[in-house]
Structures are given as structure tokens and as C-alpha cells.
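Exam revision sheet. Question 4 asks you to relate a sequence to its structure. Input first:
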Amino acid sequence: MKKLISEDPMESLCMVDFIQRLGIDHHFEEHIEAALEKQHLIVSRDPIHFVQTYQLDKVALSFRLLRQGGYCVNA
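Answer key, C-alpha cells:
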């Protein structure tokens, strides 16, 4: 649970992905929403820096989870 609300946004997103794959995301909806909101703010603030900072798999995970969560993320 601490990893879901971690200071590291990528660690939070990896945990969100793991929880969704297990099929227990309905138990953590509020925490997942908070993690996605935090990640959306980071991505929308400086998208070029975000893409250049993280590896491709982490960027793709971030974009997929944000879009799946209903956030508009520019390609």
C-alpha cells in the first residue's frame, strides 16, 4: 500500500498496473485515482523532460494508465 502512494511516481504506476492485473483494483480506487492525478500533473507540466528522463517502457506504462484512467495525454 505504501508503494501505491509512494513519492516516486513510477513506482506508484508500477503498483497500479500490478493491482489492476491482479483484478483487485476496485478495492483501491481512491488511491489509484490519486496516483494517476499526481502522474498526470507531472506529465502535463513538462512532457518533453518526462519522456527524456524515463525509459521507454515506463513512459508507455504511464501513458497507457493515464489514458485508461480517462486523462488526456498528448502523444
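Marking note for examiners. The mean pLDDT is 87.
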